[in-house]
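Attaching the record inline, Q. Sequence:
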Amino acid sequence: MRSPFGGVNVRTLALIGKSGTGKSHRAQIIAKENDASFIIDDGLLIHGSRVLAGYSAKRETTRLGAIRRAIFQDPSHADEVKKKISEMNVDSILILGTSTSMINAICEALSLPMPASIVRIEDVSSEREINTARMIRKGAGKHVIPVPTLELKKDFSGYFLDPLRIFRERKGKQSELLEEKSVVRPTFSYLGKYTINDSTIRQIALYSAQQLQGIGPGGRVYIENYSSGIIIKMELTVEYGLQLQPILQKAQEKVAQMIEHMTSLNVLKVNVLAKNFYFKERP
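Structure, as predicted:
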């Protein structure tokens, strides 16, 4: 069937399974086996290990909002993905959905042809694997996104993200990384939404910096909040006589690492200034 994207043929196929049965976990494997270069999953257009366009349904605050996002009911959302599909000259695409009607709704919203073939999760996963996936979804509210965690940090700032790496053991050789996915706990899960006060972030930043040799007590922290993460500006007290650049660089790295680890916020930048000096008492 002809696609509206410049007359180029787009081959579509679908992976169908009920919510929480492990579709996203299987997506990359199914795509490779069927020579599908691109994936549509929960509102995102994915190519290889990159998110090319879209807005993840897992960022919505309600289940209804997540469903609407996943089937591209927002015209601006759909237009963004359609434009990227056209730009990338997509020739084959795997669409994930919970039912045939959901797949059809996505195809209609994105002006894609209906699937040439349909794969059902029961055909590619054992009953045990499906039940395990359901238990993880129901018990921990965990969802899988088939791209590396580093790719999602900007869009999921403030969410708990865990990397899921799949390796292949090779006899006598180092294990080979086959693919990497991410596990996220959406705000519409029963775990709910959490917030972190700026004063808490300031305390973490100062404490982390002051654990380094050459950084003294006191200091100020300013925080700029953005939807994609935070920018931290620090004024520190540094020991007189030491080289500033190595100390401040270590402070930048340490602060970013600790805040991301303890809060799940995406740290866009840490700017550090040596505002004051202190004299270390010599024995």
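The first helix runs from residue 23 to 33. Residues 11-184 form one domain.

More tomorrow.
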